[in-house]
Amino acid sequence: MKGFRDFILRGNVVDLAVGVMVGAAFGSVVTALVKDLMTPLISALIKQPNFSTLTITINGSEILYGDFLNALIAFLIVSVTIYFFVVLPVNKLMTRFKGAPESPKKPDDVRVLEEIRDLIKAKN
C-alpha cells in the first residue's frame, strides 16, 4: 500500500488527473459550441445541416460517405474554434505576462569569430 500511496501522491499523477478532468469539461463546452452555434450557422449558409444521408452506390455496394463528411466538418470546426478562442488568446496573454523573449547573449569568442567571418566575406 505504501508504494501505491507514493505513486498516487506524486505531483505528476495529480497534475495529469486534473488535466484530464479539465480537458473533459472543456471538451463538452467546445462540443456544445460546435453543435449549438457553429453547425447551425454553417447549415444556414449551405442549406443542409446533416450530410449523413449522402451515399454513393458502386457495383451494388452502398458507400456512406455522409457520416465521414459530418465528422470531418465537426473536426475542422472544433480545430478552428479552439485555435481562435483558446490558442491565440492564451499566446497573447503569455506574451503580455512574459514580455518579449530575450535573445541569448553570445560569448565573446563567438562574436569575434563572426566578425572575422564577415570581414573575410566583405573582402571577397
Using the alpha-carbon principal axes, give the shape. Answer: extended
Largest sheet: 2 strands, antiparallel
Taking the alpha carbons of the first and last residues, their distance comes to 74 Å
Q: Can you give the helix content as a percent range? A: over 70%
Strand content bin = 5-15%
Q: Supply the number of helical segments.
A: 4
Spans of at least 5 consecutive residues whose pLDDT stays below 50 are none
What's the rounded overall pLDDT mean? Answer: 82
Q: How many individual β-strands?
A: 2
> What structural category arises from helix and sheet content?
mainly alpha
Domain count: the total is 2
Rg computed from alpha carbons, rounded to a whole number of angstroms:
27 Å
Question: Reading side by side through the largest sheet, how are the strands ordered?
Answer: 1-2
Task: Give a verbal description of the structure.
By secondary structure, this protein is mainly alpha-helical. It has two domains: 1-49; 52-124, no CATH class. It contains four helices and two strands. A two-stranded antiparallel ribbon has the order 1-2. A hairpin with a 2-residue loop joins strand 1 (55-58) and strand 2 (61-64). The longest helix is centred in the N-terminal third of the chain and has 36 residues, at 11-46. It is extended and about 75 Å long. The mean pLDDT is 82.
Key traits:
single chain, 124 residues, mainly alpha, extended
Summarize the topology.
Blueprint: H1 2-8, H2 11-46, E1 55-58, E2 61-64, H3 66-98, H4 108-123
Antiparallel strand pairs: 1-2
Helix pairs in contact: 2-3
